[in-house]
Amino acid sequence: MLTTLAVLMGLSGLVPAAQAGGSEVDVTLVLAVDTSRSMDFEEIGIQREGYVEALKHKEFIDAVKGGLTGRIAISYFEWAGYVVQDSVIDWQVIETEEDAIAFADKLEARPIATQRRTSISTAIAQGASMIVSSPFQSRRQVIDVSGDGPNNSGNPVSPARDKAVEAGMIINGLAIMLRPSDAPNGLDKYYADCVIGGPGAFVLPVRKIEDFAVAVRRKLVLEISGLSPPATVQKTAGGETGADCLIGEKQWRDMFDR
């Protein structure tokens, strides 16, 4: 499956380190965090605090220890219209509370900045590339995307999602809905129809800023445990009218056509 993804993503020159006898973990988890300018510095700061707090929380550590191997591999990056290269925190094994705190400290030390546009497709492709080249063998490979708007830059989101899912990866979403969304029927509906995919994939909405830390922790625990929350928004079944997965691109184009 990894070889398939390398071809699909145009990454055929990469040889997954797992093929060379990498370490076994329960989950390889990429945290892909939106830092687009549609969020202000306060919101991005609270988002950052949410991830730091979740990674240090006992519930997260217990979920890691409860797996078959009792260890996961985790990495992190920020994105907007492109991947912020100096934001990438490379793979680290989480096995103990000390491991989790060390990773959280790296994240907490990151300067807070914002960038233009929103390319969820680029975030998915980056997450898939990092999983392909990771030095780990895992039972589940998860790309965890948080964002506050629809894709409006780069390639369309659904084909990027489909390629990663075809290769056996799971994409989950955290839909940040602190303000009215550009996505008709809600950003959580857009994420459900256009972004998430794979066995047990889910999207969690965040509607109040004070709920962010709890939502992040809940999401991480579910991902590590391989569980899904009760569905709050259903993926549209085939044949029915779902979210317009090109709505962000259309809105961006219309803005410049006026």
UniProtKB/TrEMBL annotation:
TM stretches of this protein: none
Record's signal peptide: 1-20
Keyword Nucleotide-binding: no
Keywords: Signal
Source superkingdom: Bacteria
InterPro entries the record matches: DUF1194, vWFA_dom_sf
Signal is among the record's keywords: yes
Descriptive protein name: DUF1194 domain-containing protein
Provenance organism: Rhizobium anhuiense
